[in-house]
Amino acid sequence: MKLKKPKRRPSHNHLVEIVWDDAASKGEMWADRGNVVRPIRCATIGYEVERTARHLTVAQTIAKDGGTGHQFSIPAGMIHSVKRIRRA
Known about the structure:
Low-confidence stretches: none
Structural class: mainly beta
Helix content: under 10%
Strand order of the largest sheet: 4-3-2-1-5
């Protein structure tokens, strides 16, 4: 998915839900060809910190002073949709 940059710099108060595919692997040394590992569909909810053409970064926590905790960045090519849950 090509990410559209917001018209203004994102606020740490925008709460968003991101639906995306995560890479997957199996711990087995050998597997049958029919036992194929596929990406896993995930949903992440967080406060939008940064959005570029390459990635979207959200934070789990925002502090009163504007600091963020537990940032998580998802590459744009793995994202299926972004939905704003709450506006700043």
